[in-house]
Design a protein that fits this description.
alpha/beta, eight-stranded mixed sheet, seven-stranded mixed sheet, 14 helices
């Protein structure tokens, strides 16, 4: 795990393997960002000119290495682009700093210690840089022999932060806790499905619960059968790895509100009898990303000591074809008592979530938020980097959208058009698990809404796009599992604890 320190040392005097500075654009000129004045002085005030000669433009996502001159203890200077410089006295945007720090940390893979001399005007700036660096310094190497060659940056020292200032210290501690929990989610998402079965995922939750004082309950296939959880069982019945429903709860003695989080945890999704074609099943180990986000968010709430009760529900199953698998045309009796005609076994996430939503509703929380890699339709609508938000309360949906924007996660509010509900009418059951093809992401949201308890505020996050990144890494986002929505959920819990929601 990458270490984080706040340092009062000067950029010129701190011993490190690399020194990270910011490069910005001011009109047509390149300028060295605040925080690196001592570094620029070591270059006789010509650092920006030298970097321009090397081809640097100051654009976001850019990284340029050069050897240090005499006068600096670090042998290497790494300049990262920050884009346009803000007006005098104003801070760089938090997400700009977060991504720049992530780019630097990724570039410095294999380095022991890096000093970050990026612009810090307030504790929020330090938090963004710390978070970006810790998220950028991530690598999943559990199954690789040459893992030593890919070791992430071992230590991050933030220069310009104030280690004795309570606000800076709290910001750094929060950044470390949240980043480590996001990386926990990433590890789970990246783990091969032959190892991360529903039972193995449940065991991971139990281990974390023991470490952080959380109450964990696991319903195995026998308990699920006895309880009548037809949705979860219907999805998992085709696999040799039986399903689980996990309740993981953090409580605070001063809490006045309870937030329930429900995560889709399909540890592998073949599509079942409605089998996915080649080209669509190779990354389906990531179909438990919602459950990973929920799990990590509950642990983060505990680590931060938030004055709110947060209960996570992990609906875990493996969706496989076999002689015992659910068939298109089968009817499942859900935990709520409703019957569902299964028209497509690849629309399985909504089935496990439905049972979990009903169970979560029995505890009458103040709000429920479910998180799922639910539909390809949402990816078609919003792309690979943006998750959709649906809710039964417009104000709550807006609040989550604003929170996501604040923490640097791209999202977009989506409607729940009542006219799409009729498409799920079934001649055989109370409802079908499929409706109109157009607006499929919205149809899925309408299906889930049917299983939310009356009078409970509810939101649905469809993270199918940003949960798993198949392209080249950028900023603090790695290839593979991203931990999408964890930052939003943690901030949502903080706002709930503060009485703002």
């Amino acid at each position: 795990m990458t270490a984080l320190t706040l340092s009062t040392a000067g950029a010129a005097t701190l011993r490190a393997d690399a020194l990270v500075v910011g490069l910005a654009k001011s009109g047509k000129a390149l300028v060295v960002a605040p925080g690196a004045e001592a570094v620029d002085k070591a270059f006789d005030g010509r650092l920006a000119a030298v970097l321009e000669t090397l081809g640097a433009s100051g654009a976001e996502g850019e990284a340029t290495k050069l050897p240090s001159p005499a006068g600096l203890k670090a042998p290497v200077v790494l300049a990262v682009g920050l884009g346009a410089a803000p007006e005098d006295g104003e801070s760089f945007d938090s997400e700009t700093l977060r991504r720049a720090a992530g780019t630097a940390a990724r570039t410095l893979t294999g380095t022991k210690k890096a000093a970050f001399a990026l612009p810090i005007l307030a504790a929020e700036d330090a938090a963004a840089i710390a978070e970006g660096a810790l998220l950028g310094a991530y690598a999943y190497t559990a199954y690789q022999e040459n893992a030593d060659a890919k070791k992430p940056l071992a230590e991050v020292a933030l220069l310009g932060a104030k280690p004795r200032d309570k606000a800076y210290k709290a910001a750094a501690e929060r950044a470390q806790a949240v980043a480590e929990e996001i990386n926990r989610a990433r590890d789970l998402i990246n783990q091969p499905p032959n190892d991360l079965t529903p039972a193995a995922f449940a065991a991971a939750a139990q281990a974390a619960g023991k470490e952080h004082g959380l109450k964990v309950q696991v319903l195995d296939e026998k308990a699920l059968t006895k309880g009548g959880f037809g949705g979860i069982l219907g999805v998992g019945v085709g696999s040799v790895n039986p399903p689980r429903l996990v309740r993981i709860a953090y409580t605070h003695p001063k809490a006045e509100k309870t937030l329930a989080l429900v995560g889709k945890g399909i540890t592998y999704d073949s599509g079942g009898i409605s089998l996915k074609p080649a080209g669509h099943n190779e990354t389906m180990k990531c179909d438990m990303s919602g459950a990973a986000a929920v799990f990590s968010s509950v642990v983060a709430a505990a680590r931060l000591g938030l004055e709110v009760n947060v209960t996570g529900w992990l609906a875990l199953a493996e969706n496989m074809p076999s002689g015992s698998a659910t068939r298109p045309g089968d009817v499942l009796r859900m935990y709520s008592g409703k019957t569902v005609e299964v028209l497509n076994t690849d629309a399985e996430g909504r089935l496990v979530l439905a049972d979990a939503l009903t169970k979560a509703s029995e505890e009458h929380p103040d709000a429920i938020v479910d998180v799922a890699t639910l539909t390809g339709a949402m990816v078609l609508a919003l792309g690979n980097r943006t998750f959709g938000i649906m809710a039964n309360d417009d104000d709550y949906r807006t609040a989550i959208h604003e929170i996501a924007d604040e923490v640097g996660e791209q999202s977009w509010p989506m409607p729940l058009p009542a006219d799409l509900r009729k498409g799920m009418d079934s001649p055989t059951a109370d409802i079908a698990n499929m409706g109109e093809r157009m607006g499929g992401g919205l149809v899925a949201g309408l299906f889930l809404q049917e299983f939310v308890g009356e009078g409970i505020t509810w939101a649905h996050l469809d993270i199918a796009g940003p949960a798993f990144h198949e392209g080249a890494p950028y900023g603090y986002t790695p290839k593979g599992g991203t931990g999408s929505s964890v930052r939003t959920l943690v901030k949502l819990a903080e706002r709930t604890a503060a009485g703002e929601l």
